[in-house]
Amino acid sequence: MIYFDNSATTKPFTEVLESFMKVSSSYFGNPSSLHQVGGQAEKLLSQAHAQIAKILGVKTSEIVFTSGGTEGNNLAIKGIAMEHRGRGKHIITTEIEHDSVRNSVKQLEELGFEVTYIPVTKDGRVNPADIERAIRHDTILVSVIHINNEVGSVQPIQEIGTLLKDFPKIYFHVDHVQGVGKLPLDFYRYGIDLCTISGHKFHGLKGTGALFVKDGVRISSLLSGGGQEGKRRNGTENVAGMVAMAKALRMSEDLRKQKVDQLRQILGTIKSGLKQIPEATIHTPETNEAPHILNFSLKGIKAEVFVHALEQEGIYVSTTSACSSKRNAPSKTLIAMGVSTDQAESAIRISLSYENTLQEAERAVKAIQNSVKRLREVMK
Fold first, then answer.
1. pLDDT score of 231 more than 90
2. Backbone phi and psi for residue 167, each to the nearest 5 degrees, phi listed first
3. Do 120 and 337 touch, CB atoms closer than 8 A?
4. Can you tell me the distance from the alpha carbon of 181 to that of 203, in angstroms, rounded to the nearest whole number?
5. Secondary element (H or E) of residue 269
């Protein structure tokens, strides 16, 4: 099997699973309990906070554990909106955000908030000047994805953060779910106030994640409860999952430092093979692109048909994001980039991890080329 759908989810590292099992069986106490078993769990949870904070280059107090990217984005956006709605009800985001951001702000629109959606270029990037022009006296939040989950375009986070420093009352949220473990961010230097990560995108477990909330930034909690995570995310913590996520993040960061160039080489091999196919159009930009995501269309071939054709060869890819793929709708990101509906409906996403190899890429290229020829014959 060749697994090229890592932006949807990654396979947990063996060491991560072992860590989860050990904590689940030996340190199963509720970290809020006063007895020794609870104290042991609380110690492990505190260590996980500290380890993740150190890797991300932030303070331990600034890490809030969540259930993943969707909850993290909801908590950041709605938490800021609810906490600061007395000062303003205007939010700025982009046309290429993940559904967890897009639908969060749409919910807020139903509650009387106003949202400005910044367009992107044909390369899938926003222009920071467009964000600056959209700022109003009542703007309270700017939310921008770091790496687009469908085409891999990298947004100018540093430039946006720099311009927002002139607007200290506006909070800056970044969806870093696809970037963590691939392209690092300096949260403080880039002026980021809130930042989302998700464990299962870097070989951790599903149901684990974290939200960076800069010291001094107040957010309303989405869940009422016992005051866990500094009263920002109530509910009994998933101690084993968070310990496992800390291990996954450390291992992924080590691999990034060793193998990110190799990852780009593997993606480049696939891209070169696609360029030899007359029917193929590559949508991932040539510059400011992620090292692990490649999006392309095959003229006249529906995406779901091609996904299943490759599956027969033991190669697993996807269409749009996993959250949107079953809706059978064209990619909103590609449409925003000016791609035609026909091309958007035939778009395929390949997404790699550090476990993929050059040999897999070479085999996949041949399978793609052969599948295109076979489907063309059938369609004649």
1. no
2. -130, 70
3. yes
4. 10
5. helix 239-274
- Residues labelled as active-site residues: 323
**What pTM was computed for the model?**
0.95
Work out the pLDDT band at 33, boundaries 50, 70, 90: confident
Q: What are the start-end ranges of the H helices in the chain?
A: 14-26, 36-56, 69-84, 99-110, 128-134, 157-164, 239-274, 303-311, 322-325, 332-336, 341-345, 358-379
| SS3 assignment for 19-56 | HHHHHHHHCCCCCCCCCHHHHHHHHHHHHHHHHHHHHH
Beta strands 90-94; 114-118: pairing state = parallel
Rounded (10°) CA dihedral 156, 157, 160, 165: -150
Torsions phi, psi for 138 (to 5 deg): -105, 15
Take residue 92 and report the two structure tokens written for it.
Answer: 């700025």
Q: Which two tokens stand for residue 18?
A: 């072992």
CA–CA separation, 260 and 45 (whole Å):
30
pLDDT tens, position by position, 172-211 = 999 999 999 999 999 999 999 999 999 999 999 999 999 9
